[in-house]
Amino acid sequence: HRNQTLKDVNVLITAGPTMEPIDPVRYISNHSSGKMGFALAKAALLCGANVTLVAGPVHLEPPAGCTYHSVKTTKEMHEIVLQLFDQQQIVIKAAAVADYRPAEMATQKIKKNQPDLTIQMVKNPDILLELGKKKTHQILVGFAAETENVASYAADKMKRKRLDLMVANDVSREGAGFQHDTNEVILMKPSGEMKEISLASKEIIAQEIISEIVTILNRKKEP
Ligand code: C5P
Question: Where is the region Phosphopantothenate--cysteine ligase (predicted)?
Answer without folding.
Answer: 11-223
